[in-house]
Amino acid sequence: MDIVFLGIVIFLFLLAVFDLSVGVSNDAVNFLNSAIGSRAATFKVVITVAAVGVFVGASMSNGMMDIARHGIFRPEHFTFYDVICIFMAVMVTDIILLDVFNTLGMPTSTTVSMVFELLGAAFAISLLKMAGDSCDLTLGDLLNTEKAISVILGIFLSVAVAFVFGMVVQWLSRAIFTFNYRSRLRWKIGIFGGVASTAIIYFLLIKGIKDLAFMTPELKAWINGNTPLIIGGCFVFFTVLMQILHMLKVNVFKVVVLMGTFSLAMAFAGNDLVNFIGVPLSGLSAYNDYIANGTGDPGAFMMNSLNGSANTPVYFLLGAGVVMVVSLATSKKARKVVETSVNLTRQDVGDEMFGSSRLSRNLVRWTIGFVSWLKEYIPQGVRQWIGRRFNTSEVIMENGAAFDLVRGSVNLVLAGALIAAGTSLKLPLSTTYVTFMVAMGTSLADRAWGRESAVFRITGVISVIGGWFITAGVAFIAAGIIVTLMHFGGTPVMVIVAIAALVLLIRSNIVAKRKKADSADDVLFQTMLKTDDSTRVWGLLKEYLARQQSEFLNFAKDSYDKVATGFIGDEAKTLNRLEKSLMKEKDVLKSARRKETLCLRKASPDVAIEKSAWFHLSNNCCMAILYNLRRINEMCLEHVNNNFPLLPAKFVVDLTPLRERIDAIFDESVELIEHPDVNRTTALRKECDRVKDHISELSRSTYDHLREGDTRSLTVMYVYLNLLNETQELVSNMRKLLRASMKLNLPPRMR
């Protein structure tokens, strides 16, 4: 039996390697988003700086695993078998949960996930122990709920405090430097650099290295006793140094951003390492104690030894550091999580990752009303001064950046300062929550949330915050269920759970690799957004429109064939799948229309005015065709689901050549949109008219059939007539789309 438990401990370490990988992928947003979003350096340089910080923090961490050992439950009341089940459930739940969030591109807290997994698993085991006849312990005797309460408190504090401070500090910083910051540096940059660098040093002293291996009690006491002197000396030194660097034409903001990236990465690895390897190391400690002192009965040997602290061997720390650095440098999921944060904070408009929600719409409407009311009480001169300081048209950003270096510096410095302040005040602030909400607050203060993007940005923030709370609930419940199954099922269930976790991880990574990071359309869209040559935009936009409309028409042709096949063949499964596909396509069209509208605004005014009517008509026609397909499928699906009569063979024969003509129209339309030809377009539009006339004849013959009194096929005839009528409308919309496409491809009139 002992060999089984050794295998479980080894498996825990195997999961820890995966956990380090997915954990770094998720928490990378904490220290990468500001540097990448502001383009303070190339991606390789940013990753290198962060990797060095991660490795230094991990290799010098003291490895105290108190949270996993006795921070959530009281081990003296738990047996060796109990804690092995708890640790196994925690690791399996944690790695799957974090991988899901990474795949979705949503940042979450590794601390919260681990704490609530431990709490959920320990809670389930506690209930089982209390249900036993021989146990007279209460829940308070078995669990340490104070830690869980402190984490929940930290969630609320982190979200509110970080957002408000981010908004206020960024507003003041922008008022000082403005968006055209390069012309207003002079002596300000030295003081700003001094304050920022001192805040980073303070952050490293208080949060980053206070628990590292070389920090003796005497050194800690000296730092605590001389903190004001250290801060004052750092401020003077770095103020002079930054002013000299500015005089030497060095961009001080880039220096501050890279320093902040290093400090946050180091603090993350040095303090959050317990979230990844604490559980397997605690499991190893429990196993060693059981082998040395156990009596051979894992269900009777109590885990009093876990009440003590254990120093982690240095080779575990070095190994963890290597895994974290490799994961940081190679993980595509890390880039996806960072992309979510950067997308929600970028200065300019673009493709929004999130949609609209009722709550976000109401918040934006209320805020607009409040600002309008507030303006009435602000003097005109003050409003003009604020307008000059916050003139976003003067924004200076590095090539391809989402926001400027001023905001990137504030993000990192303020996040570090808040985390350090919270630590010194013994407030349980979450690193993930602070860095993310500071970024949201600074973007709001920078007027990055305009009226055209605020609804989508707020929806995104709400989605991320909601994900944080969901993390706690899902972690608690999932760990509780898994540990209960393992407690009753024993070794076989543990093996099944382990295999299931590995299969899910492998499948998740295979699916992620199949997805292309950037499609050609996305590259083209980003090219249009970034170009400053308005004369070039229209040519790129025509290419983009052609691609989007061609893809849609191919989808529409396939959908029409499926709905006809499903109706004729009584295939409910086909029609059900098509219903979901049509609903998704609506979101695709809405997203494409928004992107195309943003790009049209960047075209030269004359071209935009001349082409806008045909541009909007082409988009409306695509949406109308989609609605035609949805209305056809809706009635056909209801008919088939109710098992009503099949379409008589006579009408199936009539419908077959019509389908072939519709397919031919779709095929030739795609070819004409990709390779415009006025003469062929005119001929195809005439063919559309002929098809419409043919559909009218089919409708009249169907009505004649009904007048003959065939009541048995009355229900199916109504569905068939709806199909004909909507098809006729679909062909009309195709005819309009062809005309709009032809007009869009005509050369703009010269003015």
From TrEMBL:
Gene Ontology terms describing biological process: phosphate ion transmembrane transport
Membrane as UniProt keyword: yes
Pfam families named in the record: PHO4 (PF01384)
Keywords: Membrane, Phosphate transport, Transmembrane, Transmembrane helix, Transport
Transmembrane residue ranges: 6-29, 41-58, 78-98, 148-169, 189-209, 229-248, 255-277, 312-330, 461-482, 488-506
GO molecular function, one term: phosphate transmembrane transporter activity
Compartments where located: Membrane
Keyword Transmembrane on entry: yes
Taxonomy, superkingdom: Bacteria
Topology class, membrane: Multi-pass membrane protein
Location (main, coarse): membrane
InterPro entries from the UniProt entry: Phos_transporter
Gene Ontology cellular-component terms listed: membrane
Recorded family membership: Belongs to the inorganic phosphate transporter (PiT) (TC 2.A.20) family.
Protein name: Phosphate transporter
Organism: Duncaniella dubosii
Species classification: Bacteria, Pseudomonadati, Bacteroidota, Bacteroidia, Bacteroidales
